[in-house]
């Protein structure tokens, strides 16, 4: 585990805090202010529990069973039972970073004091996170309304010492054994506490924050791959001029165009579009690269604004506010679900334009002098022909993943919960979309790098040399296992190396080593 510590107060957390805990293994500590806020909220719940009138989540059943009054002697059982019964997920296990993110985000809401739980509950979650214990959470079980119920229930079950969890080394063991091994006592829940552990949009928000971090890197990576392709096609960089892009003042477009100008500085290949095969202007997939990548950047900015508002929220039902307990609908996942779907659309289009650029590099009728499929001996060799097939398959998958989940709703809980967000489903498919986009850009990097090497070989002595940034990327990619031109070989390892080069930050690091910082 990390030696970094994230201090959690009642006012919320940042996206960087979530990433530090989810991916970096940062330890979590509760501030004194957070403990005091929880103690104040708990006093309100305990006072309410002593009254004869029913209060949802305190002295009633849940969902459609909220009409049933629960006496004081059964309330601890009520809270334990909601955790057990709601831990009903099915399917593959959810990734460790996602589970850690959703647990930390639930802890963030508890620390606000608005949920009315005892500080002991929050301390238990922090202890589990700090021990590197990760509950086994399954793919299916959340409708994105009334919280990510099944996923959060599986996490709460671990706090009770029940169910299964993964230790820091990745081995799955009974949760009770793991708690005992780390000296963590199983929780004994009291009024409202079981409900408070389940009733949040933490899973979908956690996945949104993780995806935003990944997509920010991929937007910059797409600028790099687009610049490589423009250079390999002898395209013009004049369309990237600051004054031209200022005519349409979208901030994302300006950032992408600025990146590409830096990346193409000093190139001896750009501007030769009117030489051997004259053309007045480049194809849309090359010329409009900043417009498309820029629109993705602006969509990402909107998603981050929504995420920041959610990070400042206390999502639970009912909530403690101004000394009273009130029911509300803040657990509905629509705000998060919409932007998750929006990002999946943007990712699909960014992949689509990258695939069109790759296809142009491979087609001898449109590549302006490059060999068919960038093959060493076309006919005997197929070059990167099937790499583009793989890329096309990924783009097709991205188009399916772009179909929005948030327009769907299926009623549950005997029609009490008659409109749901499906935000969890939107988040799950966005994670797959991010993976597909990474692979699409990896194929473009493979093709553009090979094309640049071939372009220089063909123009030996003519001064047509790639720029410093392109050279840094091509050399770094080759060092990472993305081999250059040559006769046909087993290609999958090259593509895997390119994927790691893109996802691991090598692509951007190489470009920035020559071009300077990129947006």
TrEMBL record:
Catalytic activity field: L-histidine = trans-urocanate + NH4(+)
Keywords: Histidine metabolism, Lyase
InterPro entries: Aromatic_Lyase, Fumarase/histidase_N, HutH, L-Aspartase-like, Phe/His_NH3-lyase_AS
Transmembrane domains' residue ranges: none
Pathway: Amino-acid degradation; L-histidine degradation into L-glutamate; N-formimidoyl-L-glutamate from L-histidine: step 1/3
GO MF term set: histidine ammonia-lyase activity
Protein name per Swiss-Prot or TrEMBL: Histidine ammonia-lyase
Keyword flag Lyase: yes
Keyword Lyase among record annotations: yes
EC number: 4.3.1.3
Native source organism of the sequence: Streptomyces boetiae
């Amino acid at each position: 585990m990390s030696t970094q510590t994230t201090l959690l107060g009642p006012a919320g957390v940042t996206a960087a805090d979530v990433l530090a805990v989810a991916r970096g293994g940062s330890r979590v500590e509760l501030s004194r202010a957070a403990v005091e806020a929880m103690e104040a909220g708990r006093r309100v719940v305990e006072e309410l529990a002593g009254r004869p009138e029913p209060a949802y989540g305190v002295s009633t059943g849940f969902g459609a069973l909220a009409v049933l009054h629960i006496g004081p002697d059964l309330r601890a059982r009520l809270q334990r039972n909601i955790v057990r019964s709601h831990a009903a997920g099915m399917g593959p296990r959810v990734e460790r970073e996602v589970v850690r993110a959703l647990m930390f985000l639930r802890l963030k809401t508890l620390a606000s004091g608005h949920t009315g739980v005892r500080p002991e509950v929050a301390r238990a979650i922090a202890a589990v996170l700090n021990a590197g214990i990760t509950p086994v959470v399954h793919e299916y079980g959340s409708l994105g309304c009334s919280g990510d119920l099944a996923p959060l229930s599986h996490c709460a079950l671990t706090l009770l010492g029940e169910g299964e969890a993964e230790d820091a080394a990745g081995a799955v063991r009974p949760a009770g054994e793991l708690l005992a091994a780390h000296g963590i006592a199983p929780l004994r829940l009291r009024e409202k506490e079981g409900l408070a552990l389940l009733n949040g949009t933490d899973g979908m928000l956690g996945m949104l924050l993780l995806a935003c971090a990944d997509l920010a890197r991929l937007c910059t990576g797409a600028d790099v791959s687009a610049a490589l392709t423009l250079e390999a096609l002898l395209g013009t960089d004049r369309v990237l001029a600051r004054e031209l892009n200022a005519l349409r003042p979208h901030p994302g477009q300006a950032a992408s165009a600025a990146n590409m100008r830096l990346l193409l500085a000093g190139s001896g290949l750009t501007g030769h579009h009117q030489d051997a095969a004259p053309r007045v202007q480049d194809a849309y997939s090359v010329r409009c690269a900043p417009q498309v990548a820029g629109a993705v950047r602006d969509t990402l900015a909107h998603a981050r604004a929504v995420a920041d508002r959610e990070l400042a929220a206390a999502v639970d039902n009912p909530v403690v506010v101004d000394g009273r307990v009130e029911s509300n609908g803040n657990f509905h996942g629509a705000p998060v679900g919409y932007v998750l779907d929006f990002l999946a659309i943007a990712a699909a289009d960014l992949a689509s334009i990258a695939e069109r650029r790759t296809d142009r590099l491979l087609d001898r009728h449109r590549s302006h002098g490059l060999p068919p499929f960038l093959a060493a001996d076309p006919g005997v060799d197929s070059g990167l022909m099937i790499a583009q097939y793989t890329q096309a398959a990924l783009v097709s998958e991205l188009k399916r993943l772009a179909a929005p989940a948030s327009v769907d709703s299926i009623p549950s809980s005997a029609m009490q919960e008659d409109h749901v967000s499906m935000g969890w489903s939107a988040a799950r498919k966005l994670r797959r979309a991010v993976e597909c986009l990474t692979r699409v850009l990896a194929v473009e990097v493979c093709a553009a790098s090979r094309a640049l090497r071939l372009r220089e070989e063909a123009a030996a002595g003519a001064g047509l040399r790639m720029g410093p940034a392109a050279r840094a990327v091509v050399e770094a990619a080759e060092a990472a296992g993305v081999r250059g031109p040559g006769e046909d070989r087993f290609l999958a390892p090259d593509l895997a190396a390119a994927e790691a080069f893109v996802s691991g930050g090598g692509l951007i690091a190489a470009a920035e080593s020559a071009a300077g910082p990129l947006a």
